[in-house]
Structures are given as structure tokens and as C-alpha cells.
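Repro:
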Amino acid sequence: MSNSLIKEKDAVLVTGYINGCERSLAVLVERHKLKIFNFIYSKVFDRDIAEDIFQDTFIKVIRTLKRGVYQEEGKFLPWVMRISHNLVIDHFRKSNRIPIFESKDDFDIFQIIGDDVPNVESSMIDKQVVEDLQKLITELPDDQREVLTMRLYKDMSFKEIAESTGVSINTALGRMRYAVINIRKLIAEHQIVLSA
């Protein structure tokens, strides 16, 4: 793969692909795949389903670009993330469970994983980070672990968590807050590096 392509901005690569340069798309996929895959995985928490949705995302990207209906505003990644987000919602609709996706100020483990252009080494490091963080979650007190798991991996709203655990919304929010504080402490104690 040409080094000059690797250094190009997303917008240039998108134009290149539309004009027939297949390698431009390969560079775009390589550049953003980790962030997109981690986002999808953080919603469905199943590697096979995440892989399928990731593939479907790029099939949709390719179709849109080939049809010439993509509007370039320098926002390729947010556009692809929106497509993957919609496909995740479609997945949950098909399984008759529509999750709540408002994260706002909530803590999202996958947002702290580095998203620079990945190479084999950084991909391995990121996979290790996800595994390390999942192990840390098991060290939390039961009530905090339960809320964190429901929020991050089952996409439940705090109202749903409160109803499911038989506590008030404020208690559920409080447990989440403590879970975040404790995860950060554990990260420091275990000296986990969160980006390559």
C-alpha cells in the first residue's frame, strides 16, 4: 500500500475511492476499523455480531459512495459511526429489544481506548486493554459491577437499571459513579496503559 495514501486526509481518500482507487478505501478501513469495531462491540458485547455489523457498515459505506450520494463535509468517521449506530439499533429491533443509547456524560470504557491509525501491534494492545478492563470490572463490588454491566453491555437506561435492581434512579446513578471512580483507581493500581 502506497505510503502517500496512508498520509492523506479522509476527504482525499474518499474522493480517490469514488474516482476508482480501491486502495483508498482500504486505507480508510484500516485507519478507522478499531474505533468503529470497538464502538459496535461496546453496544452488542458479542464479537461475532460485532463483526457482522462491522461488515454491514462498510457494505453500506461502499454502496453509498458508489452511488455518488455521499456529501463530503470532512466528516467521514462520524458518518460511518452513524451508519454503524443505526445498524446496531436495527440489530436490536430485529431481536425485539431496543436499547437506550444516550451516553451524554456517562463513562464509556471504549472511548478511552486509543484510536490512532492501528497497526498489528496497537491492535493487539487494544485487544489486551479491553480484556484488562473486563477483568477489572469483575473486581468491583457486586452492586457497582451490576450497574456498570447493565449500562455498558446491555445498553439499559438508568430507569431500566433502577427497576431491574429494585433501587431508585439516584441510587443506580450513584453506583455507576462509584463504579467509574473505582475502575479509574484500579487502572492506576494495575498500571494499565490505555493507549499505545
